[in-house]
Request: fold
Amino acid sequence: MTVNLRGDLWFAMELRSVRLLALMQVAVSVALSTLVFQTITGNHILTPSIMGMDALYILIQTSLVFALGGLGYAGLNAQSKFGVEVVLMAALAWGLFLPLLRYSHALVLVLLGGIVLGVLFRSLSSLLARLIDPNDFAVVQSVSYADFNTVNGELLLPGLALTLVALIVSWRARHRLDIVLLGMPTAIGLGIDWPVLAVGLMLMVGTLVAVSTAMVGPVTFLGLLVVALSRRIVGSDRHGPLIIGSVLVSIILLVGGQTLVGSYLGNALPLGVVIEFAGGIAFVLMLFYGRRL
Amino acid sequence: MISLETVSVSLSGTPVLHDISLDLPRGGITAVIGPNGAGKSTLVSAIARLTPLRSGRICVDGLDVFRAPTRNLAKILAVMPQDNAVAGRLRVGELVQFGRFPHHQGRPTQTDVALVEAALRTFDLWDIHDRFIDTLSGGQRQRARAAMCYAQGTDYMLLDEPLNNLDIYYARELMRTLRQVADTTGRSIVIVLHDLNHAAVHADRIIALRDGRVVADGPAAEVIRPDVLDAVFGFPIRVETISGKPISLHFL
Reply:
């Protein structure tokens, strides 16, 4: 927090602590949503973002701008708007993505379904974006790109609360998540109430995606990168160590990366781009080398 | 006792089981045989509450398997499903420890650790209990899953084709181990088998299915007979009695 600090100390500390908290919260929610999503789908490659969940969030934003106009959108109460979005995202995660999981034995099918959904959401967004006037479009654009420099401070507290709840819920469910990893038939045989647990976890994933996307915008490959790295570091698929590991890796990557990029590279390189680049490469490598990675 | 009352099951609209009524009393080994697509696996997964019924009712010790809390059922009924993909980097010991999950909910006690070690030794896995599952051969993985099912410590064990991938030595070992478990602990074992001779030698009762209906049901001597097998599999099979057991020579 004190790297390269100049000027009014109090002002800088306040600004930076808000940003630090926001980044940590994004880090935690991205790590958790990805880890839990991968466990329910029983694979290491799909993430909520790859499946198009943050494209869905952008679609919601664009529709709002379309319906209310740029001014109306800006005039919305940030917190109540956020509340509605979280509920909507959780509901859509449950309604759209859970049915896809029935085919989780056919990874390709799920991946295809997710990509089709993602393209659909993005195309709908761009269709709406074409219909609105250029000023409103600027508003849409500001929410549809990942930006770690300007975080949404108004949503800090509600986001923090949701992320903490999700962290506690996943930590308490860590043993059950271990069992879920064995696949649906075995998990039911071991007394896991699958329908209840799967729906509950999907709702949580939807909420977490909404939280992180609302804070900084969509980051497609961050979750993938973080969880894959922590799997390597932890060397086990037990959720106890994995939850701790991926949360820590995620925080180090985001906060450390932002410090580096912001303070030493003079913001010449947006962190979002760096992470997408590294994550994209990791994604391709994982597709090529599969389980060996 | 496992009791099925007029159970019908459809998978994606295709009827797979038709009005099956069965009682499987406590104790002993029951083998389910039949050609591919006869509904053997569906029968087992319906009993294990994995496949929903179209009509009918299945009770295990008086508990309706689709209504009773699934956690309570996990303490009396264990299932080893057919698909053997175990995702994730787990050691054999860890996998078998998961069998104790219904009892400890993730916090194994001293008893659980001891029971897991016993299960590992029973299934000849103690030497490889530290190995990762994804480094095992298909047969070793199959035995690890059987050990996990056994470690669950339930009165009823359902195994769907546990002999898949096993060589003749371990297939025989597994069947003998199951026989011993049934004899010494009084646990009831329902097992889907393709090998008629394993069924004839080790099972107390054989249920033969064809096209979703029970064609024959009784001790080996009554089911493993040329006329019955012809009705089940649709081709004549020679049966010879060797050491008092009906051995079918289906490869001739």
In short: The interface with chain B takes residues 42-43, 105, 174-176, 178-179, 181-186, 188-194, 231, 235-238, 291 of chain A (CB under 8 Å). The longest helix of chain A spans residues 9-41. The mean pLDDT of chain A is 83.
